[in-house]
């Protein structure tokens, strides 16, 4: 899988999440470590809107580093990001309190997917 393919798939997993109840600015940079799918992108929640873009984000709340498989499983709600961190599969730098809010965004996505499936 190339970085472009990976980014399109991961963006599809994040987009459409209703973050209108999140009123603080959260900006996460993701560093993907892989020979083929490696790259950088960011996810930002600002003014109740979610953005996913293939760029570095210098004024970020937190930065996550992982391999593409781990990140895809986290984004799909199959792997808990806290578990991935404690097992060394996910590295985190920055504001830990804001980094933990990533789980909230993923939980919102998982909840919306379940509701749409019913």
Describe the structure using short key phrases.
Nonspecific Lipid-transfer Protein, Chain A; alpha+beta; 118 residues
Characterise this structure.
- The protein is α+β, with helices and mostly antiparallel strands.
- It has one domain (3-108): Nonspecific Lipid-transfer Protein, Chain A (2-Layer Sandwich), CATH 3.30.1050.
- It has helices at residues 3-14, 68-75, 81-86, 96-117, and strands at 26-32, 39-46, 49-53, 62-66, 90-94.
- The chain has a 5-stranded mixed β-sheet with strand order 3-2-1-4-5.
- A hairpin with a 2-residue loop joins strand 2 (39-46) and strand 3 (49-53).
- It is globular, with a radius of gyration of 13 Å.
- Provide the CATH topology: Nonspecific Lipid-transfer Protein, Chain A
Kindly, what is the distance between the CA atoms of the first and last residues, rounded to a whole number of angstroms? 31 Å
Number of helices in the DSSP assignment: 4
Tell me the major beta sheet: 5 strands, mixed
Low-confidence stretches: none
Return the CATH class: Alpha Beta
On the 0 to 100 scale, the average pLDDT is 91
Our estimate of the beta-strand percent is 25-35%
Rg, Cα atoms, Å: 13 Å
Structural class: alpha+beta
How do the strands of the widest beta sheet line up side by side? 3-2-1-4-5
Tally of separate domains = 1
**What's the SSE pattern?**
HEEEEHHEH
Task: Work out the helicity level.
Answer: 40-55%
- The total of beta strands comes to 5
């Amino acid at each position: 899988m190339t970085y472009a393919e990976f980014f399109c798939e991961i963006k599809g997993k994040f987009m459409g999440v209703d973050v209108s109840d999140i009123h603080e600015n959260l900006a996460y940079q993701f560093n993907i470590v892989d020979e083929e799918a490696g790259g950088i992108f960011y996810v930002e929640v600002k003014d109740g809107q979610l953005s996913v873009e293939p760029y570095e984000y210098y004024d970020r709340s937190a930065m996550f580093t992982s391999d593409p498989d781990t990140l895809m499983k986290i984004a799909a709600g199959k792997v808990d990001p806290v578990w991935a961190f404690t097992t060394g599969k996910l590295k985190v730098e920055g504001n830990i309190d804001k980094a933990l809010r990533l789980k909230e965004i993923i939980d919102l996505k998982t909840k919306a997917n379940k509701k749409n499936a019913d």
